[in-house]
């Protein structure tokens, strides 16, 4: 049996971008018979460790050295990056860390590597993948969530147990559109596209290019899963050898859905009428979107042969991730909910749909996304809106068009990109935002942080934004 690095033995690999996935890729490659070169815009601390292990640091370069056989790129690097464009023009293959991981998988005692169950989508990826991990663990599998969430895939697929066998026998894989753009041979046992909405067109160049990157997850998967309620995702699985869709309504053959308050499988069950998986009320995460996520996770697990009882046990025990529709506190009869992970309009719309009357906290970097459809849809349930961030004026204009009677408060938030002494502290900004929301809210309302935008204009990331919100809410109490 050949080893995981046999195809790369004696070759030169350039790792471009030393974030979490790049550093992990370099570490694994250094354990093989591979010459490893490193490049990034700046010398990160990990360079010291990697060069001590045998890597060569090139600094920032715009062209690949002549002897490079393969480039492993960071998912954040765009295709028009000068180095990546140069490599492509010269016929040097460029892959992402997931594609490298697929090629480096180690085989188990049965001669086969651990199967991948893969998920992509504009929204819901992390929730679905962590739900899937919970189901697999409940089924007794040595499973792990990895990829765009959790550990880098290249570490997971090469990890060994004490007896030398693979450490994991199933991998729940989250893949972003960036990662999929640089992938070509991934063949998960089952793959899901949850939804496809306007996002990341600044990176991909157009919505069709973004959609097509998402579709790559399905190309070599025997089972293709999608949400029947999302027209773009549903079209992507049409014509597939085995399409499976999920629905919030009564499932048809080939679907998982909801019947009289129960989650039912009519895609993998032996009984044509379907098999009951669990009561919908047993799900601990709110909102129709999370029911869809649960059905998608169940479909992927069922494609691997997981029994219904394990699906029920895994989903009933799932409590959700940080900054994803988390109730922080109830103060003076008002619920304060952190969904900082709602970084685009599609995600914010799903979050807003879970609550009947909302004081909405929104704003940040819209990345070219159109907020008009979202605002028009959610206007009737808004008790008020508090806006922050660089693109807040665009949301304010949309509110004026579609919800002119809703009170709107804008909070200046130091989002002009200047890190000078006059820039407000993010924690102070969020405290002002939460105080303004509290003034707009009445008992029974929900103050919802679902920004519909990225966070890096004011905060380090969505985690930082969510923590600042939680701290400000706790200060209210």
Please provide a written account of the structure.
- The chain has 3 domains: 12-99, Rossmann fold; 105-316, 3-Layer(aba) Sandwich (UDP-N-acetylmuramoyl-L-alanine:D-glutamate ligase), CATH 3.40.1190; 326-476, Mur ligase, C-terminal domain (Protein-Tyrosine Phosphatase, Chain A, Alpha-Beta Complex).
- The protein is 34% helix and 19% strand.
- It has 477 residues and is of the alpha/beta class.
- Helix 16 crosses helix 17 (462-476).
- Helix 10 links the parallel strand 10 and strand 11.
- It has a 9-stranded mixed beta sheet, with helices on both faces.
- The longest helix is centred in the middle third of the chain and has 16 residues, at 288-303.
- The N and C termini lie far apart (62 Å).
- It has 17 helices and 20 strands.
Secondary structure elements and their pairing?
Blueprint (H helix, E strand, L loop, with lengths): L11 E5 L3 H11 L4 E5 L6 H7 L3 E2 L12 E4 L8 H8 L3 E4 H8 L11 E5 L4 H14 L4 E5 L5 H6 L11 E5 L2 H5 L8 E4 L7 H4 L2 H9 L7 E5 L3 H7 L5 E4 L8 E5 L2 E4 L9 E5 L8 H16 L4 H9 L9 E6 L2 E5 L6 H8 L5 E5 L9 H7 L3 E6 L4 H11 L5 E3 L15 H15 L5 E4 L12 H15 L1
Parallel strand pairs: 1-2, 1-4, 2-3, 4-5, 6-8, 6-9, 7-8, 9-10, 10-11, 11-12, 16-20, 17-18, 17-20, 18-19
Antiparallel strand pairs: 12-13, 13-14, 15-16
Helix pairs in contact: 5-11, 5-12, 16-17
- Rg over CA atoms: 23 Å
And the CATH topology of the largest domain? UDP-N-acetylmuramoyl-L-alanine:D-glutamate ligase
Helix content: 25-40%
Strand order of the largest sheet: 7-8-6-9-10-11-12-13-14
Main sheet specs: 9 strands, mixed
Number of strands: 20
Shape: globular
Quickly give the structural class: alpha/beta
Report the portion of residues in β strands.
Answer: 15-25%
């Amino acid at each position: 049996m050949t080893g995981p690095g046999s195809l790369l033995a004696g070759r030169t690999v350039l790792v471009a971008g030393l974030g979490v996935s790049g550093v992990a890729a370099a570490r694994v490659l250094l354990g093989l018979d591979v010459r490893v070169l490193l490049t990034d815009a700046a010398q990160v601390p990990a360079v010291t460790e990697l060069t001590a292990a045998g890597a060569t640091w090139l600094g920032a370069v715009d062209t690949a050295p002549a002897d490079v056989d393969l480039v492993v790129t960071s998912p954040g690097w765009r295709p028009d990056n000068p180095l990546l464009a140069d490599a492509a023009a010269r016929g040097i293959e460029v892959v992402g860390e997931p594609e490298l991981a697929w090629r480096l998988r180690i085989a188990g005692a049965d001669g086969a590597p651990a199967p991948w169950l893969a998920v992509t989508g504009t929204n819901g990826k992390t929730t679905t993948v962590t739900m899937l991990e919970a189901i697999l663990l409940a089924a007794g599998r040595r499973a792990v969530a990895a990829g765009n969430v959790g550990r880098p895939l290249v570490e997971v697929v090469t990890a060994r147990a004490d007896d030398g066998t693979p450490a994991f026998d199933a991998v729940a894989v989250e893949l972003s559109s960036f990662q999929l753009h640089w992938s070509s041979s991934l063949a998960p046992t089952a793959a899901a596209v949850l939804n496809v909405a306007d996002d990341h067109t600044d990176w991909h160049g157009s919505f069709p290019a973004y959609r097509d990157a998402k579709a790559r997850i399905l190309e070599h998967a025997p089972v293709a899963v999608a949400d029947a309620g999302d027209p773009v995702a549903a079209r992507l699985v049409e014509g597939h050898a085995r399409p499976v869709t999920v629905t919030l309504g009564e499932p048809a053959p080939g679907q998982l859905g909801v019947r009289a308050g129960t989650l039912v499988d009519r895609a993998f069950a032996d009984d044509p009428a379907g098999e009951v998986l669990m009561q919908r009320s047993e799900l601990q995460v709110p909102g129709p979107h999370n029911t869809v996520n649960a059905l998608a996770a169940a479909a992927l697990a069922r494609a691997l042969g997981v029994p219904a009882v394990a699906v029920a046990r895994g989903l009933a025990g799932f409590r959700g991730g940080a900054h994803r529709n988390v109730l922080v506190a109830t103060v003076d009869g008002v619920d304060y909910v952190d969904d900082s992970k709602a970084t685009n309009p599609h995600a914010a719309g799903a979050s807003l749909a879970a609550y009947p009357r909302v004081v909405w906290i929104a704003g940040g970097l819209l990345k070219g996304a159109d907020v008009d459809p979202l605002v028009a849809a959610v206007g009737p349930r808004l008790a008020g809106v508090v806006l922050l961030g660089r693109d807040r004026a665009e949301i304010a204009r949309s509110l004026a068009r579609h919800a002119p009677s809703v009170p709107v408060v804008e909070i200046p938030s130091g989002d002009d990109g200047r890190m000078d002494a006059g820039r407000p502290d993010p924690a102070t900004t969020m405290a002002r935002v939460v105080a303004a929301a509290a003034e707009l809210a009445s008992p029974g309302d929900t103050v919802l942080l679902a920004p519909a935008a990225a966070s890096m204009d004011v905060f380090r990331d969505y985690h930082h934004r969510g923590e600042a919100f939680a701290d400000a809410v706790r200060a209210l109490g």
